[in-house]
Specification:
By secondary structure, this protein is mostly beta strands. The chain has 8 helices and 41 strands.
């Protein structure tokens, strides 16, 4: 499973937060924050003598770019925690504009007469007026530290304030003076020196929310919008590179026409200049970021915008999005004509993907939109674009997004996708599409369907997928009737071995998931003799209580296969050590063999466990496994926090067959294809190469004992057929990757960001001749899928004797 959005994999839209921690003997000390800080804490709300009715925590953004707080939390601990004291969590959402505030309302008391301004988040914590500790935390899991030293070691803490006599604090002493009528607040500069007593002082509470509203319904005074155009135009802001020459500069009266409005999430609107400068490198569109504040502008409004230019990097390794933050604007007129959209098609989008910087950043390279696709898209960032009659290359997601290609002849697959064929041959026509109108989301579509007619929108950039079109006008989906494949049934003298990643299956999943996966095995795979499963979790899934067995999960799955007309499979696996094999925390992911005992037998040989390595043993009868099932060198650093290969010895028609089930380390942490670093670093690849070498070494040992040994290595290798991982796995011709035996247009089992690619493989040893191999496409190309991977099957004739 290649983790994205929900997992490796990978990236969030939040601005990166510095989480390094320096341990102090006497104080909790998150590294000084140049972005989000706790700006005010008040625990006296509703107390006798108080004016305000509720407690609150106020956050502020000291940075020059918006700060996303989705996925973060504010947590509270009593000032003198006891053994039973627990951190209380209030979850956050939305974002904080540069220089802006964010208000978290807490519990109300019976006193006070003045309400807080509308809160941006609401908790239920009854904070103490005179003493306590408040932390801004990356994540929503409660902290466990109860001393300054222990909290100093927790890298999740972004900022921390101890007030009154609080034991947990930053610096030599807590902030004094908090009471029923006094909060502790940070200085107007928002400086964070990691000395609470120096950075904050007691005073009258002054809560402010993201809209700038204060208690009692007032609003902080703000400057009026501009009335005359200034000297700066949008193309001056965008410049001729990826980073604005005016980054960090305040601009006044920038003119433009509103071309799109984002009313949810990171809110704001796009403007475009109606008097372009004629330079194809300098963009004429721009995003105006209003944070969590809704805006009253409409498409077609002519506006003047003042604010600060900022480069927003939505994720690790991504390119930036140029925008105006903390805006003030004036609507001059409405109903104006919009600039004509730029047509994106096979003629306008270049064939090269992106310039190289030898692994460095391309931020400062001059744009060349006539030569590189990503340079063209960057030059059009924030501008109106249009395409027509595009083929869908990535099915509609749970986030109402699809991928299309504006180049229908670019590396097409047999079933309508776009093939990812090599690191050097990127698909330049891919774009993600989503709708700006919540009432008209992107329709459901599968790979190969056509988005018929004209689609128009604003070209944007995000961490997930890179350049995307925020559609204001959508084409209609033409269903091309993509159907799920069914492979042929194996013959009596053929052994059928399959691999299937079942995407974190556990006994708590809905029956519908079990039934769909079971149909894939019984019907689409035609009931193989052996099925190597990846991503089987323990019986209670993500519950992290030490459970490691999968008996209930496998009982439900095999029952569902019988109900779909398949055989009664038996199973073998080795339970991992608790939380030692990576995957979802608490899930204890592992590889499992299912086998049909009416067709094939399993050779059980004692000695295999989570930590004992399996060996090839040369006997007078031929090569055997020292343990069956067993694990390949589980103590090797290659398998740290990763799934260990499962090896089993089977017998078919009187002959031994060795099967190795694999699930290599994910691609989480790799730099994105569309990112600022080119060529991107594939940091996760190092571990997979090590893992591949371990498997190759084991297979080589088997073949040294018996060069004709029948070995099938299969599973989710999380890498491509052209990767260094595959070269390490096949070293010395110990194994042959069967994906390369298929026509090029059929070499895929997974679809990611509109690329049809291969992460799953079946490889065979030289002793297996003329294998019949098939990738069975039932999941990856469909909006409705039970797993994100397609299964594969190989049918081989082992020969010799009769089954009995």
């Amino acid at each position: 499973m290649q983790i994205h959005r929900s997992g490796s994999v990978l990236l969030t839209g939040a601005v990166a937060v510095a989480l390094a921690v320096t341990a102090l003997p006497a104080a909790a000390q998150a590294a000084p924050s140049a972005t989000a800080v706790i700006s005010e804490v008040y625990g006296g709300g509703g107390n006798s003598g108080a004016t305000l009715t509720r407690d609150f925590v106020e956050l502020a953004n000291a940075g020059s770019a918006p700060f996303e707080v989705g996925g973060l939390s504010v947590q509270y601990l009593p000032g003198s925690p006891s053994a039973g004291s627990q951190w209380q969590v209030s979850e956050l959402s939305g974002s904080i504009a540069p220089g802006g505030r964010y208000l978290v309302a807490q519990a109300a008391g019976t006193g006070g007469t003045v309400a807080l301004p509308t809160a941006d988040a609401t908790g239920t914590v009854a904070m103490a007026a005179g003493s306590g500790t408040v932390a801004l935390v990356s994540g929503t899991t409660p902290l466990t530290c109860k001393s300054a030293a222990d909290c100093a070691a927790d890298t999740r803490i972004v900022d921390l304030v101890g007030y009154g006599s609080a034991v947990v604090r930053e610096g030599g002493g807590p902030v004094p003076g908090a009471s029923a009528t006094a909060s502790v607040a940070r200085a107007a500069s928002l400086a964070d020196t990691d000395e609470n007593a120096a950075d904050l002082a007691a005073g009258a509470p002054t809560p402010v929310n993201t809209k700038g509203e204060t208690s009692g319904g007032g609003q902080e005074p703000e400057e009026p919008g501009p009335t005359e155009p200034g000297d700066v135009r949008i193309h001056d802001i965008q410049g001729t590179t990826r980073v604005s020459p005016l980054d960090g500069t305040s601009v006044t009266g920038v003119p433009g026409v509103v071309t799109g409005v984002r009313a949810s999430g990171s809110r704001g609107f796009w403007i475009q200049d109606t008097a372009p400068d004629g330079d194809p490198r300098t963009g004429e569109g721009l995003f105006v970021y209003t944070g969590s504040t809704a805006t009253a502008v409409k498409v077609g409004d002519a506006v003047l915008v003042s604010g600060k230019v900022a480069e927003y990097y939505p994720g690790t390794g991504t390119q930036s999005l140029t925008q105006i933050t903390a805006p003030r604007f004036t609507v001059l007129s409405s109903g104006n004509a919009l600039p004509a959209p730029v047509v994106l098609d096979a003629r306008s989008v270049p064939g090269r993907y992106v310039p190289s910087a030898d692994g460095g950043t391309i931020d400062a390279l001059p744009l060349d939109p006539s030569r590189y696709a990503l340079d063209l898209y960057e030059a059009l960032e924030g501008s109106r674009v249009e395409f027509a009659d595009t083929r869908v290359t990535g099915a509609t997601t749970a986030y109402d997004e699809i991928w299309v290609t504006v180049k229908p002849r670019e590396n097409p697959t047999r079933r309508g996708g776009t093939l990812y064929a090599s690191y050097e041959d990127q698909n330049t026509g891919r774009l993600k599409v989503m709708s700006l109108d919540p009432a008209r989301p992107v329709p459901t579509a599968n790979v190969g369907d056509v988005l018929k007619g004209r689609t128009t929108g604003v070209l944007d950039y995000a961490s997930y997928g890179g350049y995307n079109v925020q559609a204001t006008e959508l084409g209609t989906v033409v269903d091309k009737k993509l159907r799920r494949e069914v492979t042929r049934k194996q013959k009596k003298d053929e052994l059928a071995v399959a691999t299937y990643n079942v995407e974190n299956l556990d006994a708590g999943d809905d029956q519908a998931k079990f039934d769909t996966l079971a149909e894939g095995v019984a019907v689409n795979l035609s009931s193989p003799d052996i099925v190597s499963l990846e991503e089987i979790q323990d019986d209670n899934g993500a519950v992290n209580d030490g459970t490691t067995g999968s008996e209930a999960t496998l009982k439900r799955f095999t029952d569902a296969i019988v109900a779909k007309g398949g055989p009664r499979y038996a199973w073998r696996y080795i339970a991992p050590e608790n939380n030692k094999d990576g995957g979802e925390p608490g899930g204890n992911i592992r590889n499992v063999f299912l086998f049909n005992p009416q067709r094939v037998s399993f050779t059980d040989r004692a000695g295999g466990d989570a930590t004992t390595p399996v060996r090839a043993v040369d006997t007078w009868k031929g090569v055997e496994l020292s343990a069956s099932p067993g694990r390949i060198n589980p103590a090797s650093p290659a398998w740290a926090d990763s799934r260990k290969p499962l090896v089993g010895e089977f017998v078919f028609r009187g002959k031994p067959v060795f099967v190795i089930g694999n699930h290599f380390a994910s691609k989480g942490g790799d730099q994105p294809l569309h990112g600022r670093y080119q060529e991107p670093t594939r940091s996760s690849e190092t571990k997979r190469i090590q893992q591949a070498a371990e498997v190759n070494t084991f297979v080589t040992a088997l073949l040294k004992a018996d060069r004709s040994a029948k070995v099938v290595a299969l599973g989710d290798f999380n890498d491509f057929e052209f990767s260094p991982t595959m070269k390490a796995l096949t070293k010395g011709r110990a194994l042959k990757p069967l994906i390369t035996t298929l026509p090029t247009s059929e070499r895929y089992s997974y679809v990611f960001d509109g690329n049809s690619q291969t992460l799953d493989h079946i490889l065979t040893s030289p002793g297996i001749r003329r294998p019949d191999y098939d990738v069975v496409h039932i999941n990856a190309e469909f909006a409705d899928q039970a797993s994100d991977h397609d299964p594969q099957v190989v049918r081989v004739k082992v020969g010799g004797g009769f089954w009995h």
